[in-house]
Amino acid sequence: KFVSHLIVLRHRSPLVNCEIELYPDEDPGTCQYIQAVQLWIQYALACQVQLLNIFDNYGDQRLLLNVPFISSYLMTVHLRNVSLECSMNLSSCLVLENLEMTHCNIFMHKISSKSLKRLNMTECFFRTEVRTRFSFPGLLSLHLEDGDFRTPLLENMPLLETAFIRLEERCLDRCDNGDGNCDQESCEGCYGFHHYQSVLLNGLSNAINLELLAEPKK
Length: 218
Hints:
Layout: H1 2-9, E1 17-22, H2 31-46, E2 51-56, E3 63-65, E4 76-80, E5 82-85, E6 88-89, E7 98-102, E8 105-107, E9 110-112, E10 118-122, E11 125-126, E12 133-135, E13 141-145, E14 148-149, E15 153-154, E16 162-167, H3 188-191, H4 201-204, E17 209-214
Parallel strand pairs: 1-2, 2-4, 3-5, 4-7, 5-8, 6-9, 7-10, 8-11, 9-12, 10-13, 11-14, 12-15, 13-16, 16-17
């Protein structure tokens, strides 16, 4: 009812840009606050928003975001300092092309979109014991920088043109035996992920321009 009422007040005028910002004197961990943020997101999507920004410049991933993104108009999503749980299926955003995440906690097993063309993730913490899978068959540009914990598993991206991947100290992907190249097929760090499936290289194999950086033993 809240969302419907706001749409009536705006006379269903399309919304180009929407920013939802958390303030330092509020507690986004409460159910009431989470519900309010979800209502504002639903309102923005119902108003045919094209660019959606959700950010918290005052805290450390205080807001746990768990709301479906369904839109035929949303083209760009920017997320900063939020936590995301469950699988993030963006296939219902039919024209989504740009996704940017900075300092986000990722509790999801899979992030997928058929329309996404550009993905930029910087200093995100992948908190799941099971690797987060990326499924973006239409992706053209990938930027994955300084992720924490486990590197996400990249599914095939046949249209990929440019990719930048940097694995630094906080990444836990390393040789299980500590020498960087132990030559043991049982070592997930050297031989990949379950049944020797590649974590990164399968998804990056079609890239025209590739920059792949890592610290020793990663």
